[in-house]
Amino acid sequence: MDLSIVVPVYNEEENIHGIHREVSAALDGSGIHFELIFVDDGSTDGSFRKLREIAASDDRVKVIRFRRNFGQTAAMAAGFDAASGRVVIPMDGDLQNDPADIPRLLSKIDEGYDVVSGWRRDRKDAFLNRILPSILANRFISGMTGIRLHDYGCTLKAYRREVLDGINLYGEMHRFVPALVSQVGARVTELAVNHRPRLHGKSKYGIFRTLRVILDLLTVKFLLSYSTRPIQLFGRLGVYTLAASFLSGAATIYMKFFQNTSMNRNPLLLLTALLLFMGVQCIVLGLLGELNARTYYEAQGKPIYVVKEKINLG
Ligand code: UDP
Ligand code: MG
Asked: Is position 313 within any domain?
């Protein structure tokens, strides 16, 4: 199998036939051997009926149906797990992504990249509550993760199968896959892709998505930088806080003996106590984190490194 196309579907009944038609039009006759995996994320409209129809008429179409709505990331993860293609391409189920871009993504992969990320250069969504927050979020994410992409949020991307193995997705994390896989040494690039307005069905997201993305970014940043050494983050914070507590305590004592400020009238005493507690807590959190990291890596037999090739080794 050359290619697995993964489509998350949540109440998209009017778009399903169109996706099947456009994907077939883009790939039939290209000689590319592909499967089209739809993941029905607990739709409450007629989406599943439509999916069953096309799966009955075309055995390249595969369908996974969730028991309830688990969210777009979960739907994509289920599709990735089921995918058997050498390359995996996720795509939105609302026809906003253009299947005609698939061959272009594939040729980028053939140039040797492990991940090709779509960039909706001319995005057809509401400006104020979708495009503007997205521009800011993309800058921020690029800065934090060090992987500079214009459009993390574009679902249309292409992955070489191997880089997805071992990547576990949670929350809203599907957009961070390029950053996560770059950690295991994947080569990432981007490609401008077509974007179209949504003609049928409703968008499932609004402005509040930005908040969810920022919170997930925090997790990703932590995982990228400190997952094997949490004490380096919490311990440092703890040491700084303890140092501040010490300074504040010394100032309190100095003011008592040399400036006659009574200790119980001095707000710095409270600050000293507060910083002392915070410092100790941070260090203890760091130690707990270290224990957790050991459980995580050792219980699962996960190495903390990624090997590319070996010579003269079994
Ligand atoms: N989707 C999903 N589960 C959800 C929400 C969305 O599978 O809980 C799918 C949805 O059907 C669509 C894709 O995720 O195929 C992107 O959703 P949408 O088009 O609403 O997002 P937008 O393009 O507005 O960012
Ligand atoms: Mg959409």
From this structure: no
Half-sphere exposure (CA, 13 Å, Cβ side) for 89? 28
Structure confidence by residue, pLDDT tens digits, 155-165: 999 999 999 98
Q: How many domains does the chain have?
A: 2
Q: What residue numbers bound the domain in which 137 lies? A: 3-226
CA of 176 to the centre of ligand 2 (A): 18
Helix (H, G, I), strand (E, B) or coil at 303: coil
Distance CA 12, CA 205 (A): 14
Q: Give, for ligand 1, the residue of 70, 72, 125, 131 to mutate: max count of ligand atoms closer than 8 Å to Cβ.
A: 72
Residue 133 Cβ inside 6 Å of ligand 1? The answer reads: no
Determine if residue 112 is left, alpha or beta; phi over 0 gives left, psi from -120 to 50 gives alpha, anything else beta.
left
Same-domain check for residues 197 and 148: yes
Looking at the structure, do residues 242 and 143 belong to the same domain, yes or no? Answer: no
pLDDT digits (tens, 9 = 90+) for 86-143: 999 999 999 999 999 999 999 999 999 999 999 999 999 989 888 998 999 999 999 9
Identify the three-state secondary structure at position 173.
helix
Name the one residue in this structure whose structure tokens are 């391409």.
89
CA distance 89 to 39: 13
Q: Which has the closest alpha carbon to 3: 233, 129, 159, 177?
A: 159
Q: Which amino acid is at 292?
A: N
Q: Are residues 117 and 202 in the same domain?
A: yes
User: Is the same domain home to 182 and 170?
Assistant: yes
